[in-house]
Amino acid sequence: MNVSLNWLKTYIDFDFTPEELANRLTMLGIEVESIKQLGAGLEGVVVGKIVSVTPHPNADKLILCQVDIGDEKRLQIVCGAPNVYQGMFAPVATIGTELSTGIKIKRAKLRGEESHGMLCSEKELAISDEASGLMELPSNLSVGMPLTEALGLNDVILELEITPNRSDCLSMLGVAREIRAETGNTIRYPEVTPIESETDIREVTSVTIEDPNLCPRYAARVIQGVQVAESPSWVKQRLESVGVAAINNIVDITNLVLMEYGQPLHAFDYHKLCENRIVVRHAKENETIITLDEVERKLKPYMLVIADAEKPVALAGVMGGYDSEITETTKDVLLESANFQPASIRSTSKKLALHTDASYRFERGADPESVIAALDRASQLIVEIAGGTICKGVVDVYPGRKEPLKIRLRKDRVNFVLGTSIEVEEIEQTLSRLGFGIEPNQTERDNFEVIVPSFRLDITREIDLIEEIARVHGYDNIPITLPKGDIPIPPPDKNEEVRRRIRNFLLGSGMMEAVNYSFTNPNSFEKIRLNDDHPLREATQLQNPLSPDMSILRTTLIPSLLENAQHNHNHQINNIALFEMSSVFINGEEPGRVAGILAGEIGGGVYGNPYRHPDFFDMKGIVEGMLDVCGIYQYEFKHTEDSTYHPGRNAEVVFGETRIGIMGEVHPVVLENYELPFKAYLFEFDLEKITDASDFSKCFEPIPIYPSIQRDLAIVVDQALKSDMPIDIINDTGGEWVESIRLFDVYEGNQVPDGKKSLAYTITYHSATETLTDKAVNDLHDKIVQRLNTELGAELRM
Amino acid sequence: MKAELEAIQTEVLEQLKQIASSDELETLRITYFGRNGKLTDVMKGMGSLSKEERPIVGKFANDVRATLTEAFEKTKTALESQQQEQQLKDEAIDITLPGRKPAYGKAHPVIQTLERIETIFTRMGFQTVTGPEVETEHYNFDALNTPIDHPARDLHDTFYLTDGQLLRTHTSPVQIRAMESQKPPLRIIVPGKAYRVDYDVSHTPMFHQVEGLLVDKHVTFSELKGVLVSFARQMFGDQTQMRFRPHFFPFTEPSAEADISCTVCQGKGCRSCGHTGWIEILGAGAVDPEVFKAVNYDPEKITGFAFGMGVERIANLQFRIPDIRTFYENDLRFLQQF
Q1: B109-335: what CATH class?
Q2: In a designed cystine with A745, which of A93, A493, A760, B277 is the match (CB 3.0 to 4.6 A)?
Q3: Is the same domain home to A386 and A417?
Q4: Residue A286 falls inside a structural domain
Q5: Chain B residues lying within 8 Å of A417, measured CB to CB
C-alpha cells in the first residue's frame, strides 16, 4: 500500500524525516519497501510565462522566447516546440538544473542565439511520456513558483508491505495509529457532520440481508441531485499520489474515503436499481453479472452478490456492476458501506481471479464499526464537491453486531514469554496508544482486562497482546540471552551416518554432487526404456505442475542424471562424473536413493594423465568402494534383466537375499534418447537397504607376525569362465593359509588358443601360527593347480 | 733417495690438483703406483741402501705413500661427488609440466551451505530430524494455524498432487511431527527440500530450508534472539549485526523477521541491500499457542521458538549468482566453482 506523507500529516503530527519514519514503521512491523520522493529531479524547474515569441534569425524550426520567471527576471530561451505561443505558461528548467532524465541545463548558444534554460515537455520532466510539445500549465499559477509546488509534487510516498494480519493498517488512519503508538501524538479524525434533507431514506430505499453470516452489516445512504464531474485537483492529487486513478467526483470520493478509513464503499446510480432497493443474497444458479471492468462473469451460488429487486448489481465486496455504475447522467446516488465475511470474499475473488482494493481489505477483515463513519464522511464530501442533498437517516442493517472482546493480560506472562522486565506503566501506555481499552484489576495490580478495539481483528488472545507490547517496546530492546534448558540427547542415526560416508566417498572418488528437481517428465520412463508395466512408472502426479515436463514426482534418479549428462555434453563438457543423493516418491513412501553416472572421459586430460573412456569396472570399483565404507563386504554382483542397461553389462548387487542396488553400462538406445555419443555407466542404490546391510562395528585383528609367501598363478581356461570361479577353488583348497588372491591379468590373444583366456592371480599364503616353509606352500600350491585342472579344465600357463 | 721421494710427493700432489676425471686419476695412479710406476721404481732401490739408512728412508717412504694414497682417495671422492652432482643436474625435469591431480568431486553449493548451517546448530545442541516432502493439508497448514481461508495461504503457492496431498511449502510440518512423537525438551533443526509454484531468477519451484525448533518449560523470545545472533556470527562473521523486525507468521506469535548487516557493505548501504544496510535472512518467532494445542502441549506450561531460513538465499549472499535456477542445471562448469 502507498502512503502519502502530506496526506498522513493531515491526521497526525510527526517530525521524522521520511527515512526515520520508514525505519520506525519497519521496526513496528510495517515494512517500508520503498521511499519515493515525488518530483525528484524537478528542483530548479519553475513556472514560466512566455511573454514574447520571435522567429530565430538563423533557423526555421527554432523560436526565440522571452520567458518571465518572476522577480522581474526575463530569460531568452531557444525553443523548438510546435505548441509554443505568446502568453503560454510552461515549466522552465533553469541553468544548473539536473533533470531525472539525465539532462543537465547549461547556458548554450543555439545557431548563434543565447539560450538561458529549457522550456520542457512532460517527457523531459519524467512526468509522462507526452513529448509532442511543451507541457502547458494553468495560467492561474504564479510565475516563478517551483513546479513541484505547482503540481503538488512536494510529497514523499512510502510503499508499505502490510502483513495479512494487519488489515487495520490498510488506510491512512491505520498508519496514523501506528505513529501514535510510536509518538503518543493525538490523531485528528475528519470532522463528520452530514447535513441531511427532509426526505427520509426509509421512503426511498430498503436493504435486506439474506445471509447474515456472509454480510454482518450493510449500511446505505442516498444523496439526491448530485452533479457528476471531474474531481477537484486536491482530490485527484491525493488519489494519484497513492496510485489510484481518478474517474469522477463520486467514485473518487469513495476511493478517497477507502484510503482514509480502510472501509470500501460503493456508489450505485440510484435509478438503475430495480425498485431502488438492495438485497444482499447468494447468486442464483447460472446468474451472470457484467462487472465494472466490462467483463461478464458467471456466478456460483456460494458467491455473495448485492442485488436489486431482480438482478445482481455488484459482486459483494469485490467489484460493482457495470449497469449500475455512476455516469455523467447520474443524479441520485445510493452509497453502500458494508462489512462482509473474509472467507467468502476471498473465495469469490480467487475463483474469478478478480482482486480489487475492496476485496483485498475485506478478505483480510474490515472493521464493522467504521462502516457508518466512512459512509457519513463520503456523503458529506459528495455534497461538498458534487452538490446534492443527503436523505435523512441511514439504513443500517447490522445482524452481526458483536460485543467488544475482553482479554485478560498478565504482566508476568508478558515478561515470561519475552524474557524482559517491562513495567505496568509501559504496558498501559502502549495499549492505550494502540487504541485498546484497559480495565485495571482492583485486586491484582499486575493484571488487566484489555478491551480490543473493533479494528483489531487480529487480536484475540493474550499472546497477541504480548506481541503488541513487544513490537512497540522494540524487538531490539529485548535482551539477547542463550537458552538455559537441558540439551536433549539425540538417538543414534545410522541412516545419516551411511549417507555421510557414501557422500564423502563419492566426492573423494571424483564425482561431483548434483541436485535435481524432484519433478520430472512422464516421457522419461520411455527414454530409459522401462516396460509399460514397470512399477517405477507408477509416479505421483502434480495437479498444478509448472509445465508438462515437471508434472510427476521422480521414482528414480536415473533420468535426472542422464539429463545432466546431456546438458553438459551439449555444452561441450564431456568429463561427466556426477552423483545425486535424494528421496524418490514411490507408493506414498519416500525412500532414499544414491545414484551416479560416469560418461565421456575420465582422467585429467593432461600430459602424463590423459583422458580415457570409463568402463564397467571403473563404475564397479566405485560401487565396491561405496559399499566398503559402509562396512558391507558380503555381497554379490549378479547379471540381471533391466532394459535401461546393456543386457550383457549390468549387475544387481545382492546382499543376502536383498537387491540393494543396480549398476551397469547404459543401453545404446537410452544413450541415443539422451543424445549421448559415448558410453555411460550408471548406478542406483537404495539407501535404506544399504543402511540395513551396513555394519560399522570394527574389531582389531592382529598384524601378522609370521612372514607371508607369494606365488603367482597363470592359468588358461575357457573364455566364458567367470574370473571368480578359480578364486572359490583356491580359497576352498587353501583354507586359512590363503590370505588374499589378487587377479592381476586377464589375457586373450597370441599364445592363448582360440576360445580360451589366461587368468593370472597372485596368491598370498600366510599362517597365523607358524612360519610357512617353501615346501609346505609348494605342496599346497600344487594341490590348487590340480584341482583347478580337474574341476575347471585349467591348464597352467608357462 | 729421500730427496727423490720428496720430489715425487710434491710432484704428485701438484698433479692431483689438475685432475679432472677418474680416468686421469687412474693414469696418474699407474704412473706412480703401477708395477713400473715412479714410486714403485724408487722403492725398488731400497735394497741398495745401508742398514742404518734403510729403516729411516723406509719409514719416510711409507709416510709418502700414505700421504699420497690419502690424497688420491680424497681426489677420488671429490671427483665422484662432482660426477653425481653432474648426473643429478642432467636429470633435471620440467617442473611446469602438469601434476597428476587425483580426481575429487565437490559438494553441491546449496548442500555445502546447508551443511554449514547444520553444523552450527548441531554445535548448539540441535538435533537434525527430517520428514516427508509429500504432506497433508493438516501438517503443512492446519496444524500450523493456517486454516484454508487464511490469507496467509496466499503467501505459499502450493503444488497439489492429484490424490489431494501436497508438496510441503516449508519444512515446518516436521515441527508438528516432531512434537507429536517426542516430549519436551526439544531442540531440533529440520533441513530439507520444500516446494512452491514459482519460477524466476530468484525463485526455483524446489528449494531448501532449514527449520529450527526449541521447546521447553520456559523458553523466551530473548533466547530466540540469542540463538540466532550466535548463528549469524558463526555463519557470516563475528562482526555481523542482527536486527529483528516484527512480522507475521500464522504459527508463531510474536513473530519476527531477522536481518543481518549487509555482507557486501557491512551495513553502510549499497545496491545489494537496497541501500538499507540490512539483508533479510530468516523468519522466526515464539511458537503460537494454537500450534501447541494442535500437538496436545499445554501452552501455559510449555513455551518455545521456531525459525526457518531459505538455504539458496543464504548461499547466494556468498555466491551472488544472478539467476538462482543455475543451481539446479548441474552444469559441471558451475559445480566446479564451489
Answers
A1: alpha beta
A2: A760
A3: no
A4: yes
A5: 220-221, 254, 286, 303
